[in-house]
Amino acid sequence: MSGRPRTLARLAAVQALYQAEQTGVNGETVIDQFVRHRIGDPPGAGGMEEGRLPAADVPLFARIVRTATQQQDVVDNMIAEALPESWPMARLDPVLRAALRAGGAELWQAEGPPARVVINEYMDVAHGFFTGDEPRMLNGVLDRLAHLLRPAEFATT
C-alpha cells in the first residue's frame, strides 16, 4: 500500500475517525494530529511499520475526515438506513463504523472518484483490519449508499 497515496489517505481517515470517536476530539483536531504525527515523512520518524502513513494524500484525507465529522448526523442516518435491521450502528465494531463513515462521507461528495472505486478502496482498507464478514458488510452498505447517492453511475443504458 505504500505506493498508493489515495488508499493510504483512506486508511488514515478510518484511523482518524476511530480516534475521534474514542477520544471525543473534533474533526479539525484529529486532522491536525494526524498531519503532524502520522502523515508525512519527517527525518527519523519511521515508516508504516511504526504506524506512520508517510505517502498518504493529505488533501483527500482531510476532505474525508472533515465531511464525515461535519456531516456525521447525515452520514450516520444514511448508514443506519442501509444496515440490516438487526445491526444498529451501536452494535458495529468501532473500526467498521469508522470505515463506513469514511466511505459514506466520500460517496456523499459528488465530485469524488467513481463510486465503484471508492467501494473497492474501502474494501482493501477493511481487509487490513478484518478477516471475518465485516468487509462483506461494508461492501453491501457502501453499495446501497452509492446507489442512493449516485444513481446515475448505476443507470443502465
How would you characterize the overall build of this protein?
Helices cover 64% and strands 0% of the residues. With 157 residues, the protein is mostly helical. The chain has a single domain (5-151), classed as N-utilizing Substance Protein B Homolog, Chain A (Orthogonal Bundle), CATH 1.10.940. It is globular and about 45 Å long. It starts with a helix and ends in an 8-residue tail after the last helix. 36% of the residues are buried.
Q: What is the architecture at the second tier of CATH? A: Orthogonal Bundle
Mean pLDDT: 90
Strand percentage lies at under 5%
The low-pLDDT segments are: none
For the secondary structure, the number of strands is 0
The biggest beta sheet, please?
none
Give the topology string: H per helix, E per strand: HHHHHHH
| CATH superfamily descriptor | NusB-like
CATH fold label? N-utilizing Substance Protein B Homolog, Chain A
CATH C-level class = Mainly Alpha
Structural class: mainly alpha
**How many helical stretches?**
7
End-to-end distance, in Å?
A: 35 Å
| Shape verdict | globular
Number of domains: 1
Radius of gyration, whole Å: 15 Å
Helix content: 55-70%
Note the quaternary state here: single chain
Q: TL;DR?
A:
Helices cover 64% and strands 0% of the residues. The chain has helices at 5-23, 27-37, 58-70, 72-82, 94-108, 115-129, 134-149.
Layout: helices, strands, pairs:
Blueprint: H1 5-23, H2 27-37, H3 58-70, H4 72-82, H5 94-108, H6 115-129, H7 134-149
Helix pairs in contact: 1-2, 1-3, 1-5, 1-6, 2-3, 3-5, 4-5, 5-6, 5-7, 6-7
